[in-house]
Amino acid sequence: MNLADELAGVVEGAAPQKPRTRAKRKPKTKGGRRLFQHDRKLGYRWVAGADEAGRGCLAGPLVAAAVLFDYERLGPREVRALGKLNDSKQHTEEAREELYPLVMRIATKVVVTSRSAGGIDRRGLHKTNIAALRETLLKVACPGCILLSDGFAVGEMDGHDRRAIVDGDATSAAIAAASIIAKVTRDRFMRRADALHPGWEFAAHVGYSTPEHRDAIQRQGVSPLHRMSFQSAAYQRLPL
Fold this sequence. Notes:
The chain is α/β, with parallel strands linked by helices. The protein has a domain at about 30-190: 2-Layer Sandwich (Nucleotidyltransferase, domain 5), CATH 3.30.420.10. Helix content is about 40%, strand content about 15%. It has 9 helices and 5 strands; from the N terminus they run H-H-E-E-H-H-E-H-H-E-E-H-H-H. The chain has helices at about 5-15, 30-40, 75-80, 95-105, 115-125, 125-140, 175-195, 200-205, 210-220; strands at about 45-55, 60-70, 110-115, 145-150, 160-165. It has a 5-stranded mixed β-sheet with strand order 3-2-1-4-5, with helices on both faces. The longest helix is centred in the last third of the chain and has 24 residues, at about 175-195. It is globular.
């Protein structure tokens, strides 16, 4: 028997091989639980996060919020209650309104600050944003906490540990919670402003640069809520 015949006999007489199966991957932790795991791994009892809403709007205030969580008092029941927590932009208005009271109840401390259109025009958008985030974080800070901000570093924080996290509102529970508080607070303000400044449809677009908003500016000019420091195409043909 030659080598080829021997190999054929080995193959023919071999026990059938079981098909290989891929190892099952553990399902990724979803939603709020994943965000809370991120913050807990930082190793601090107190974790504070800050975020803003309205930075890119043509009209209305910039609203910053900060939320402080105490991880010694944050148990499975609280994490489950905030299981849908995520970046506010990933939620519908109804979902944000549902999360808002849960954050208010579970967080140890919540602070909101607002900067008007006039203040943004005088100081500049970036400086106004950083100052608002810094102010809210300092107001929720406590000894031994870490202060997190979404994307932007906010400078020295009176000796507190601090960290800027890129895409923080989709990474950190504290920042995501702050994004919910800031967005809901600002949207509620803009819906009330719609009744005081009719014609710009603030309740629909809450100040963002939508086609309907730009058409309203072309039609009737600007309101006291509009920011004049933006070089927006919506403003170029208006005698401001």
